[in-house]
């Protein structure tokens, strides 16, 4: 059983649209969750953290649902530069998922 | 603040040779992790140091891989002898505590190619 499950995508979204994707986790030991952004052939970089119910930062909103064991990421007014892969992670997780690939089209 | 640095950034070696990867974590981060990403697949955990002690090495694939963290500072990951399937990107990450508040900070990785 994988520690996280994410739709690998790609999500093809027109510029300016809103897009959301989820990440379900199985390791209930994790208390903190994070969305990372990974560009092709680069290391993952922290995008947002979420400890309680949710966190908002500009166009990005992350939410945590402990009862259903998933976190979500919402991107509003998407930009071409948002094109990347978005892996999620919990702090007791050993295996990172491959992430959800997002492609913003002009 | 300097980030996590890894050296070398790229390494191409022949099957059977030895390669040593180095990771310098963020100063003050007791927790250091090694991960590996094989082409197109997930990033997989290799091992976790707390200071100089191996907290969890359950992800190490076999005894050809040896990790050390002398004095709880930088860490090395040695592959000896290297096999073709060892090719991939090796990431190092460090964190305060178990990454509860700030997550992990990753280095830019070492791309290892075994030919």
Key attributes of the depicted protein:
heterodimer, A: mainly beta, 11 strands, 50% strand, B: 115 residues, mainly beta, seven-stranded mixed sheet, four-stranded antiparallel sheet, 0% helix
Oligomeric state of this protein: heterodimer
- Put simply, the count of helices of chain B is 0
Strand content of chain A: over 45%
Encode the helix/strand succession of chain A as letters.
Answer: EEEEEEEEEEE
Query: Mind summarizing the main beta sheet of chain A?
Result: 5 strands, antiparallel
User: What general form of chain B does the structure show?
Assistant: globular
Report the span from N to C terminus of chain B: 37 Å
Describe the structure.
The complex is a heterodimer of chains A (106) and B (115). Chain A is mainly beta. Chain A has no helices and 11 strands. The model of chain A has no long low-confidence stretch (mean pLDDT 88). A 5-stranded antiparallel sheet of chain A has the order 1-3-8-7-6, with no helix packed on it. Chain A is globular and about 40 Å long. Chain B is mainly beta and 115 residues long. Chain B is built from no helices and 11 strands. Chain B has strands at 5-7, 10-13, 19-24, 31-37, 43-50, 53-56, 65-68, 75-79, 88-95, 105-106, 110-114. In chain B, the strands form 2 sheets. In chain B, strands 2, 4, 5, 6, 9, 10 and 11 form a 7-stranded mixed sheet that branches. The N and C termini of chain B lie far apart (37 Å). The relative contact order of chain B is 0.32. The model of chain B has no long low-confidence stretch (mean pLDDT 91). The A-B interface holds A 31-32, 34, 36, 41-46, 49, 51, 87, 89, 91-92, 94-98 and B 35, 40-45, 56, 58-59, 89, 91, 98-109, 111.
Layout of secondary structure:
The complex is a heterodimer of chains A (106) and B (115).
Chain A: E1 4-6, E2 11-14, E3 19-25, E4 33-37, E5 45-50, E6 54-57, E7 60-65, E8 70-75, E9 84-86, E10 88-90, E11 100-105
Parallel strand pairs in A: 2-11
Antiparallel strand pairs in A: 1-3, 3-8, 4-5, 4-10, 6-7, 7-8, 9-11
Chain B: E1 5-7, E2 10-13, E3 19-24, E4 31-37, E5 43-50, E6 53-56, E7 65-68, E8 75-79, E9 88-95, E10 105-106, E11 110-114
Parallel strand pairs in B: 2-11
Antiparallel strand pairs in B: 1-3, 3-8, 4-5, 4-9, 5-6, 7-8, 9-10, 9-11
């Amino acid at each position: 059983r994988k520690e996280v499950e994410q739709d690998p995508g790609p999500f093809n979204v027109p510029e300016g649209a809103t897009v959301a994707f989820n990440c379900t986790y199985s390791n209930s030991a994790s208390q903190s969750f994070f969305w990372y952004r990974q560009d092709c052939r680069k290391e993952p970089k922290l995008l947002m953290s979420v400890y309680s119910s949710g966190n908002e930062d500009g166009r990005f909103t992350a939410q945590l649902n402990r009862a259903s064991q998933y976190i979500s990421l919402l991107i509003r007014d998407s930009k071409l530069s948002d094109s990347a892969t978005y892996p999620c992670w919990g702090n007791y997780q050993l295996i990172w998922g491959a992430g959800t690939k997002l492609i913003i089209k002009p | 603040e300097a980030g996590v640095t890894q050296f070398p950034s790229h390494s191409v070696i022949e099957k059977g040779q030895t390669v040593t990867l180095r990771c310098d974590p963020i100063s003050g981060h007791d927790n250091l992790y090694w991960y590996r990403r094989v082409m197109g697949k997930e990033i997989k955990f290799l091992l976790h140091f707390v200071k100089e002690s191996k907290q969890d090495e359950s992800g190490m694939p076999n005894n050809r891989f040896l990790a050390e963290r002398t004095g709880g500072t930088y860490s090395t990951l040695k592959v000896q002898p290297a096999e073709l399937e060892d090719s991939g990107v090796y990431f190092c990450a460090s964190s305060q505590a178990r990454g509860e508040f700030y997550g992990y900070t990753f280095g830019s990785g070492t791309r290892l190619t075994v030919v």
